[in-house]
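Lecture 7 notes: from sequence to structure.

We start with a single chain of 465 residues. Read the sequence below before looking at the structure.
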Amino acid sequence: MTVAFSPSAPAAVRASSPAVHYTNPIAPRRADAHIVKHTDGNYYFTATVPEYDRIVIRRSPTLQGLSTAPEKAVWTKHATGEMGAHIWAPEIHFLDGRWYVYFAAGSTDDIWRIRMYVLESSGPDPFSSTWTEKGRIRTPHDSFSLDATTFTHGGKRYLAWAQKPPGSDVNSGIHLARLRNPWTIEGDPVLLATPTHEWETRGFKVNEGPAFLVRDGRMFLTFSASATDANYCLGLLTAPATADPLDPAAWRKTPTPVFTSNDATRQYGPGHNSFTVSEDGRSDVLVYHDRWYRDIQGDPLNDPNRRTRVQKLYWNADGTPNFGIPVPDGPTPYRLAAVNRPGHVVRHRDGRAVLERDVTALATSQFRVVPGLAGSGTVSLESIDRPGHYLRHRGFEVWLDRSDGSAPFGADASFRRRPGLTSASAASFESVNHPGRYLRHRDFALRLDPADSPQARADATFDLQ
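Now the structure, written as tokens:
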């Protein structure tokens, strides 16, 4: 297994990495979020503010703590001229002992003359540093450009960004180049991707917001596509880790989007992501923005309500990332993985709760542990892709049913969460209305059975992932 090669990218983790527990959203009115976990143990956060007039940073030892961490403006737009309008999509990176912020800006005399710029800190603490403008990132073609990000691979540092290709009718494509220093491109950039599919051209023809990740012998580059309303979504480029990143032929675009709006969870326009890691370093975390409503009045860029959200990034058995769906607001969900059947998780299929291996329909296997429908001290397991539906027993078989609000349903769908019957670090779920019976798998179906044998106790123990 390999690890990611950039201080801004997450370490590679096992597919069976532990669950993460966060409450969304992390930051209201903060778009294009970039979060990096630094070697000092803190998370550093920056994002676009809806006024488009300044660059802000936050710091916290936990991801959730960023929601209440003090925010500092480290730079404000110029009163006139260049860097005087549309301050967009900052990213914060620690390179060679200093912090750098990459961002895009327009000019007061032409707010759509968007170009890329870099700030440099005077020292290792971005909050006490003074910041120096290193100027514009010069590209061979002087055209609309934004969303710069940097990463290291194979001992070489690269810059990826979005730019309008010359002579093209698309708004932006993904470009890549080597860096001589944090603000200077070296050599000729290459064009890795342009919007070609229908899902990339809704409203505008856009590929933007690249984010880099390496795992198990492959490079992944996510990007955002289409207009910044409910059509906004994530696409994915993949290449062998042994390939030259500057070889466009090495990269393959997934033909469908990997992360899109979802009516069930009421999340719209998810995009402009970055990656970080959980506090224990064992789980990859997807950072992105979206809105909680589909309909926008006027220009989406004038709507201030994009907000920063996080959720666990899962990995399929074939080594590809599984983004699932944008989870509901509130606590992030879990997967229930059988401790005695590696690779098998609980999912719902045709209304039945079953145990299956290598489930790629991620959302069917994610459940929120919520306050129990039966009251204090109990929990219920709510499906994320079918909100209002809970795992409940019917004749000791476990089904996914919509709550009817009745007391009998609440009792059937409520459990007492216990330490795992065969592993204290795992969890077991004891029925409220049938004490001594536990949620367990038997013949790959979920049941409510007594934990009266070593086999039954093992079958009733689940890792939360």
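The helical segments are 407-412, 454-459. Keep this in mind for problem set 3.
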